[in-house]
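Feature request disguised as a bug: please show the residue count (483) next to Probable glycosyltransferase At5g20260 in the output. Example input:
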Amino acid sequence: MTNSTTKFLLLLLLPTFLLIIFFYSYFFNQNNFNFNPTLNKLLKPPSNPSINISNQLDNNNHVRLRHNISFFTLLKKKLEKKEKKKKKKKKSNLEKLEEGLARARAAIREAARTRNYTLKEEVTTFIPRGSVYRNPHAFHQSHIEMIKRLKIWTYKEGEQPLVHHGPLSNIYGVEGQFIEEMEGKTTSNKFMARHPDEAHIFFLPFSVAKTVQFLYRPLVSYNRGPLHRVALDYVNVVAMKYPYWNASHGADHFMVSCHDWAPDISDADPKLFKNLIRALCNANSSEGFQPMRDVSIPEIKIPVGKLCPPSLGLRISKRQIFAFFAGGNHGHVRTYLFEHWKEKKDEDIQVYEYLPKNLNYFQMLGQSKFCLCPSGYEVASPRIVEAIHAECVPVIIKDNYSFPFNDVLDWSEFSIHIPVAKIPEIKTILKGISFKDYLKLVKGVRSVKWHFTLNRPSKPFDLIHMMLHSIWLRRLDIILPYQ
Ligand SMILES: *[C@@H]1O[C@H](CO)[C@@H](O)[C@H](O)[C@H]1NC(C)=O
Ligand SMILES: *[C@@H]1O[C@H](CO)[C@@H](O)[C@H](O)[C@H]1NC(C)=O
Ligand SMILES: *[C@@H]1O[C@H](CO)[C@@H](O)[C@H](O)[C@H]1NC(C)=O
Ligand SMILES: *[C@@H]1O[C@H](CO)[C@@H](O)[C@H](O)[C@H]1NC(C)=O
Ligand SMILES: *[C@@H]1O[C@H](CO)[C@@H](O)[C@H](O)[C@H]1NC(C)=O
Ligand SMILES: *[C@@H]1O[C@H](CO)[C@@H](O)[C@H](O)[C@H]1NC(C)=O
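Example output, currently without the count:
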């Protein structure tokens, strides 16, 4: 036979051979299964395959299934596998994210139940221990789960100076430091999502402080219109462009601001902003701050070129001042405080409006046993963090204030809370604290210091991680619907 004849025969035989296999399998399959394949059907398998494979595997037929596998069952199996894979991929990103969150919730509950540390997964060197935590085990587990899983998408829309940029120092500095950290501009941020589909939460990186600085210059009007428009425009742009805001009605979106006016942005459209997580310094529950939804963040007067206030705390035995305050007459709480205690009416309660030039404010904090932290024009003030860094027990004189990180920290273990109405009783209250209890409070202050320490890049359990953890907890509280 010539070469060409062989080729011809092969060309003729091959289709015949395939046809035989086809019909053989057709009948074979028909005899054994309720299955009526056509090529078309096989290539586009029905969504609900008529072969009851799991059924078959359950009875004695399974041996035959394994060994008498035909070409078509093989092909079908392959297609089914592919379909399964496709379905798995089709399992929405949100479904995968929610499954991860469900595992995190379970692990946190388990840690709370067994009161155990999962030390085998040692992600951090810091271990929360002691009474300053509401539940150290659950908190530890939750923090680890957050580090393991949390992905944040920071929207790219918008331009400086109002977006992607904030003040880095002074009393609004936390705002800029946080924005910068999230954008990963100067430091890498392991929480950054590569794609919004893999994000659990979405950050709106506009700066209220910068908006006020640039749109209200000179500051002649306190009308909140321009501020409202910035926030509203931003949300409308990202809600038009991406599906994420609409999918959750904003419940997995957050903003961060230390500016007094920040809570006001919600008034731009209360319905639209109903679910938005607002991380605010001005955490005044009488001004619409909702502890279950919003996040209280500490205010820090960040020194230029530094990250935290000085730590000039002396040993307890060297602290000569019983209680100390120095600050402007800002707002009614201060006025009331000054009425009762200003300028050495009492040797023990040293309250100054203007500190004499020969005295150093931070040294004074470090020489004091108790540091008074009254509200100013707004509830928050940098004094709590200053006191903590000076290892001075904060005496918080505020009403309607939602304490930062209150979800995990028990503030009564490292601070004293005095309602504004009890300002005249400050001395009686503080003198009533035994030395033993005072030592316990100081110990508490020392152990929470790290949580009020700003690092760039941020480190586990530090200030920015604590802010993120508060937001993470809000996200764990909701389950987004998925198909
Ligand atoms: C598959 O099995 C289920 C449960 O045994 C049965 O109800 C169903 O009719 C079966 N489907 C086919 C196509 O045989
Ligand atoms: C394969 O099927 C044939 C006929 O359908 C049967 O006689 C034979 O025993 C089967 N082989 C095995 C290994 O089950
Ligand atoms: C705590 O964890 C350790 C190590 O994982 C384990 O050996 C121990 O049994 C656990 N204790 C409880 C009460 O679950
Ligand atoms: C989200 O909802 C708004 C208001 O209903 C609508 O204008 C916008 O187009 C929606 N966004 C997307 C991405 O569908
Ligand atoms: C605010 O504080 C005052 C004084 O303590 C209290 O009477 C009032 O109920 C508080 N309001 C809210 C919303 O917590
Ligand atoms: C908290 O908000 C209420 C309501 O706006 C206000 O009356 C109060 O003065 C605020 N507290 C402080 C300390 O600013």
